[in-house]
């Protein structure tokens, strides 16, 4: 059974997730840890729970979700995995990081390309990969049908959706991803968001004023 530990990091209040199961193998999704203190919090949790980090994955590569990529790669000797399209997004981060106050950002690159045909496996667990572009052109989400949850990055939020005014964003594409991918998940699926609290598919279908179920 997969356990999920969220952390909220950096000035954007980004949610980083550590997923692990009974084997103690773990994956880190969207490490936003930037400060030494934030990185120590992540390290302490992994050490205290005797976890072995085996994968590092980005749902997408906007700055707030990638600030800890290099740290995690170097600390746990893992490779960075993301959609091929997101490489361009990641390569742009060093150019604008200082303007957001992240002058110490350590650049890195995507090592392994994944897409909607790639299952994410670790320990005894498997997540299905969903392609949900719109907020970012190569955005992915990770879904467990068995445990009815989805790590969805910045696609769907509690009564909101991801912004589309950033480079590569497109509102029509995002709406399509929500209506034809996210809203096709079972109503009792719990959605872990890239910012803020989790939500449920059934709740968003009824209450999300951006995109209600038709």
TrEMBL record:
Essential cofactor(s): Zn(2+)
InterPro entries per the record?
MBL_Glyoxalase_II (IPR051453), Metallo-B-lactamas (IPR001279), RibonucZ/Hydroxyglut_hydro (IPR036866)
- In this chain the Metallo-beta-lactamase domain maps to 13-195
Q: What organism does the record attribute this protein to? A: Bernardetia litoralis (strain ATCC 23117 / DSM 6794 / NBRC 15988 / NCIMB 1366 / Fx l1 / Sio-4) (Flexibacter litoralis)
For the keyword Hydrolase, the answer is: yes
Q: Which GO terms describe its molecular function?
A: hydrolase activity; metal ion binding
Under what name is this protein listed? Zn-dependent hydrolase, glyoxylase
Keyword annotations for this protein? Hydrolase, Metal-binding, Zinc
SMART domains from the UniProt entry: Lactamase_B
């Amino acid at each position: 059974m997969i356990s999920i530990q969220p952390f909220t990091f950096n000035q954007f209040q980004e949610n980083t997730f550590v997923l692990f199961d009974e084997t103690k193998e773990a994956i880190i999704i969207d490490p936003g840890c930037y400060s030494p203190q934030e990185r120590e919090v992540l390290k302490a949790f992994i050490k205290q729970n005797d976890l072995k980090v085996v994968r590092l994955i980005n749902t997408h590569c906007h700055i707030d979700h990638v600030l800890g990529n290099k740290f995690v790669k170097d600390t746990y000797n893992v490779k960075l995995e993301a959609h091929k399209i997101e490489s361009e997004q990641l390569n742009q981060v060093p150019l604008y990081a200082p303007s957001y106050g992240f002058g110490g950002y350590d650049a890195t690159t995507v090592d392994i390309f994944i897409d909607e045909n790639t299952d994410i496996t670790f320990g005894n667990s498997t997540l299905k990969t969903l392609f949900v572009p719109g907020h970012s052109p190569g955005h992915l989400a990770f879904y467990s049908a068995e445990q009815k949850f989805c790590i969805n990055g910045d696609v769907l939020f509690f009564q909101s959706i991801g912004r589309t005014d950033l480079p590569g964003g497109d509102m029509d594409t995002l709406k399509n991803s929500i209506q034809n991918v996210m809203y096709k998940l079972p109503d009792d699926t719990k959605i872990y968001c890239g910012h803020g609290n989790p939500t449920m598919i059934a709740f968003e279908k009824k209450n999300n004023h951006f995109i209600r179920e038709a």
